[in-house]
Amino acid sequence: MTEKISLQSEGEQLESLLEELQKERQVKDIAGWETGFPHFGRALDGILPGLYLLIGPPACGKTSFAKQLLDQVARHNTVPGVFFSFAERKKELRIKTLARLSGVENREIRRGSAYLLHWYGVPKAQHTDAERLPPSWDKIKRSAEEAKTWLNLTYLIECGRATDLQQIEDQIREVQSIKRTDHVMVVIDDCQRLGNIEKKLTDRVAIVVDELQRAAVSLQIPVVAVWSDLREERSSLPQVWSDRAPSADLILVMEIDLERSKRLTEPNQAITLHIVKNRRGESGQLAFDFYPAFSQFVEIA
After folding, report:
1. Is residue 163 a part of any domain in this protein?
2. What CATH number is attached to the domain comprising 82?
3. Model confidence at 230: pLDDT above 80
4. What pLDDT does 141 receive?
5. Contact 175, 82 (CB under 8 A)
6. I need a surface site. Which of 101, 131, 145, 300 has the fewest CB within 10 A?
7. Does residue 121 form part of some domain?
8. How far apart are CA 228 and CA 159, in angstroms?
9. Which residues of 192-216 are buried (b: 16+ CB within 10 A; e: fewer)?
10. Of 204, 201, 249, 257, whose CA–CA distance to 229 is shortest?
């Protein structure tokens, strides 16, 4: 038998709301979670429950940006984060995180990856083997140890062809149960793999986004859905995505700034992040520099 819910008017609930607001003594510049990117955080008013659709062409750093954002939210707000990956393996994502944290290039870490444990960055070696490790491994170990507190809050989950939204929701609830909290941030990389793969991507985006937005509302969590723009012709304005994915709460479109990239050393890239839809009604652009060797984004004033 369904439990009867007692209805209360807004006037009756007003007092409890005022009490709740009074208990919040910390004065914050933003309403949601800190992002670790000051301008980005202010533009979005922090990370709040809802669907964030992150779109961009291949090789512009979408995965690295989404992973860095998840890590920074976990670190700054002490909340769990779950990263679902349809393309990259957990080991590769861990190497990217270690490169960003330690300042040691991805390729150097990969050379010594035989020494890696199943978990972040501590060499698995006998004393004789340890003598052959380069000095940079000390930086990696130190960075991993310093990050362990918030790394204990993050989970990487590899998705297969058969992974569907229901399985993703079940795993999110499992993390909520393990961490005993409803507050979780989620990233779904290459989310275009969800839905009916027989449909064209342009036909699939609205359906997939609608389902993900419903899941975000149902779970009351922020979900960052990363969508790869595989169109050959991208001359259309970023704002067209507002029509293609109307149910998304926020739409962020990445674009490589070719002119500003000329001032950077290859393969580093200048990235413009277009805010084309925002629950606050504001739009705008943010500038970042992307350093692929370290899988790191740096916000530019």
Report:
1. yes
2. 3.40.50.300
3. no
4. 87
5. yes
6. 131
7. yes
8. 16
9. bbbbeeeeeeeebbbebbbbbbebb
10. 201
The answer to whether residue 104 sits within a structural domain is: yes
Please identify which residue in the block is written with the tokens 């669907």.
Answer: 51
3-state helix, strand, coil in the chain (%, to 5): 45, 20, 35
For residue 242, the enclosing domain spans 32-254
pLDDT class of 119 with cuts at 50, 70, 90: very low
| Beta strands at 284-291 and 185-188: parallel, antiparallel or unpaired | unpaired
The Cα 286–Cα 272 span in angstroms is 6
277 compared with 172, residue with greater pLDDT: 172
Residues listed for the chain: 301
What would the mean pLDDT of 165-187 be, rounded to a whole number? 97
Q: Which two tokens stand for residue 35?
A: 């992002």
**By three-state DSSP, how is residue 242 classified?**
helix
Judged against a pLDDT cut of 50, whether residue 290 lies above it is answered with: yes
Residue range 156-174: mean pLDDT, rounded: 95
pLDDT tens by residue, 16-32: 777 766 665 555 677 89
Q: How many domains does the chain have?
A: 1
The tokens describing 290, both together, are 């992307």
| Tokens of residue 255, six digits | 């674009």
Adjacent-strand bridge partners of 171: none
At 129, list the tokens. 């083997």
DSSP one-letter string for 90-123? HHHHHHHHHHHHH---HHHHHHTGGGB-SSTT-B
For range 264-286, the mean pLDDT:
91
For helices 62-77 and 136-151, angle between their N-to-C axes, nearest 10 degrees: 60
Residue 230 φ/ψ, nearest 5 degrees: -95, 10
Reported as a single tens digit per residue, the pLDDT across 60-94 is: 999 999 999 999 999 999 999 999 999 999 999 99
